[in-house]
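Bench log, entry 3. Co-assembly request; chain sequences pasted below exactly as received.
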Amino acid sequence: MAKMIEQQAPFHGSATTPAQRLELLRTMMRIRRFEEKAAEMYARGKIRGFLHLYIGQEAVATGAIAALRPDDYIVSHYREHGHALARGLDPNRVMAELFGRETGVTGGRGGSMHLFDVGKSFMGGYAIVAGHMPLACGLAVAEQYKGTQRIAANFLGDGAVNEGEFHEALNLAAVWKLPVLFICENNFYGMGTDVRRVSAVIEVYKRAEAYGIPSEQVDGMDVIEMHDAVARAAARVRAGAGPAFLEAICYRFRGHSMADAELYRSKEEVQRWRALDPIGQLERKMRAAGELDDATMQRLQAEADAVAAEAARFADESPQPARESLMRDIYAPADGAKADA
Amino acid sequence: MPEVTYREAIRQALRWQLEHDERVFLMGEDIGAYGGSYAVTKGFLQEFGERRIKDTPIAESVIVGTGIGAAMAGLKPMVEIMTINFSLLAIDQIVNNASKLHYMSNGQISVPLVIRMAGGAGSQLGAQHSHSLESWYAHVPGLKVAVPATPYDAKGLLMQAFDDANPVIFIEHTALYASKGEVPDEPYRIPFGQAELYREGDAVTLVGYGGSVHQAYRAAQKLAADGIEADVLNLRTLRPLDTDAILASVRKTNRCVVIEDDWKFGGFGAEIAAIVQEQAFDDLDAPVLRCSGADVPMPYNGALEQAALPQEDDIVALVKEIA
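Structure output for the full assembly:
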């Protein structure tokens, strides 16, 4: 029965409009294509260091960020290209950052794991597992202190949940009723270690519940469900109810990083999850609802191809940072706004 | 000029900041209802309220990380880590986040955060409560490290720390809270990277910071009785370091001894010795010596603890080897 209803009305009960769904599809396709292009550029030696691709998990960042206000803070982990693009960071400048170029979002200082765009309230990608969670609490403290309606969204992976900082952050957020929304992307592997081998409680949301935080498990392969869950949770957080926690069940289709031989999981398992591809799911449902035709799909694909190709071209033609700039910005200039000035 | 304690001098700076800058708030373990482990913030909760004076869980990493996040959002938090020993639980936040965000973000983010902590040994608190880890923080680019030796330093350096747009590790010495000195009532600032010539001589340069300035001074008074007049330098900040003041003194005295409570191996004294030999080798008449803490986990027993810490007589004996 439920299946029949879904076939007839695949978006029944969703807060999204057809135009929003088209936008969600467009964003996911652009992230997918961007990441494929990044992998290609890595293989060609244009990108070095670590490169963690978001392919497979696009629905989480896309759905979540579309449901937030543009000025809500985003604090993400090191697999954050998708979050950056979903927030609207310039793909050219993101790719240039992966290339380490002067035109990158952090001038080649940060790299793949440290994208920042403060003007878009994108407060960074962080590469110490769970080490960014206290920062999200701090941004939330500041907005609570100022009395604004702005909230902080903190993306983390399932690998973070056994770190002390995870527990310290959840406890503080709960006891101070901070306007912070934690979104755990549970893709079942902390690097290459199956969550079942290292976590005493594998349902991550239950750990957040232990701190009295309203917590929910969400299908992170379904961008509509993701969007609606974040919209509901963010509204409660924004209203002053304190933190919320979402566990998004998802899967990364590629290795942990480009160096991963994927010895720890079977090809069959990956194939099973690929059948749940978030882009394919949304495409099928939109077609079933009569919201998407072949021509539109082809146009979206062509656009995504063009954006990724242009990003790679822009990055490749961008200058390297000047050697003389090495020691720049270690310290901020002294605060000009003295309290008694 | 009124004479106040080191503790009161810190209180004056904090109170002034709270009264004059709405962006300033204080957070830390037991700073509110309890009044502060060293009574620095006693009465502040009643005076300024829970919004400005925040008692935290015992969770150093999230305390510091929350301070960083609030600073990123334009506030000026002051985080108190009860003692430097507990700051080790927050070292990920200090080293991986606070010190690096301005650079990693290509200057987009600033972290104007003051992190106060009490350090030093000498009160028989045992191995886990007797650290002098200033050099660990001074090692990290992106941090500033202030080490006040006197009440005057404490107020002026803390006022300056609040004006800085960068994370400042402000290390108070536990043995100095009750010490007294002249402190102006009005606000003033001591610029970072400017050492004080605490005592003037010509035979040897004694370099100290925090608590060791006073040991150096007492040793210098004893040496004076034997006709050896020492320069005593109070570094005030380790990063930025007033290299010019050290070199100027050494060029005058041609001899240098560094006094530090810290372990000798890989300590801050080694950095000073390296700088002096790199930049003033031809001015030296003797090797740069270090009077440091013993390379040992601090024992509880009082006599053993004193044996592990540099004493005036140790300094006098070292100076007499070279002067």
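The CA atoms of residues 181 and 234 of chain A lie 7 Å apart. The first helix of chain A runs from residue 2 to 8.
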